[in-house]
Amino acid sequence: MVKVYEINGVTPVVHPTAYVHPSAVLIGDVIVGPRCYVGPLAALRGDFGRLVLEKGANLQDTCVMHGFPGCDTVVEQDGHIGHGAVLHGCRIGRNALVGMNSVIMDNAVVGADSIVAAMSFVRAGMEIPPRSLAVGSPAKVMRALSDEEIVWKTGGTGQYQELAVRSMRTMRETEALTAPEPDRKRIEWDSALPLHLHKNASA
């Protein structure tokens, strides 16, 4: 069950097809759209500005969304926010990816189909063009993305959309076992490779 917090008479909205982990914190003006996934310990503080996850977006473990009064922080449709990222008063475009532990600052815009590499810092007001790779601290646009890289990103987001469904169907709180069972089963999954290995495999 999703636990949310009202503030100043404003209550978070979670679409029935979205999955929000019970340890995530949603406060105030938060809107989580259809087929979204919000991971464990994510914090969405809509106590100043509005926070929006559009259809099919994911916000993974320990991510933070927040913003200044009067601004919207938005992850557009199929946006993909990696573990530990911080979004503050920014806009992440459709089908864009923000890598793990990156920080996207106020009024920054990450264009559609773009990738921000892990541990990057996107300064306030920066605009990353569509289909671009941005890297570093501060982030710089390095090059355009290939069709193959965008297909890889889209596939990864699809896995999180499936995870939202799987989590709603099968995740439950339980007691830990004291030892592994004989012939312990594994979670079955189609192969998914990091981008650098994906490129090598398809070369």
**Residue windows where pLDDT falls under 50 for at least 5 positions:** none
Strands, count: 20
Spell out the helices and strands N to C.
EEEEEEEEEEEEEEEEEEEEHH
CATH superfamily of the domain at 13-144: Hexapeptide repeat proteins
Topology overview:
Blueprint (H helix, E strand, L loop, with lengths): L3 E2 L7 E2 L4 E2 L4 E8 L4 E2 L4 E11 L4 E2 L4 E3 L5 E4 L4 E2 L4 E3 L2 E2 L4 E2 L4 E2 L4 E2 L4 E2 L4 E2 L4 E2 L3 E5 L2 E6 L2 H24 L24 H8 L1
Parallel strand pairs: 1-4, 2-4, 3-5, 4-6, 5-7, 6-8, 6-9, 7-10, 8-11, 9-12, 10-13, 11-14, 12-15, 13-16, 14-17, 15-18, 16-19
Antiparallel strand pairs: 19-20
Q: Key features?
A:
eight-stranded mixed β-sheet, Transf_Hexapept/Carb_Anhydrase, 203 residues, 16% helix, Trimer_LpxA-like_sf, twelve-stranded parallel β-sheet, alpha/beta, globular, UDP N-Acetylglucosamine Acyltransferase, domain 1
What does this structure look like?
- The chain is of the alpha/beta class and 203 residues long.
- The protein has a domain at 13-144: Hexapeptide repeat proteins (UDP N-Acetylglucosamine Acyltransferase, domain 1), CATH 2.160.10.10.
- The protein has helices at residues 147-170, 195-202, and strands at residues 4-5, 13-14, 19-20, 25-32, 37-38, 43-53, 58-59, 64-66, 72-75, 80-81, 86-88, 91-92, 97-98, 103-104, 109-110, 115-116, 121-122, 127-128, 132-136, 139-144.
- Strand 19 and strand 20 form a beta hairpin.
- The longest helix is centred in the last third of the chain and has 24 residues, at 147-170.
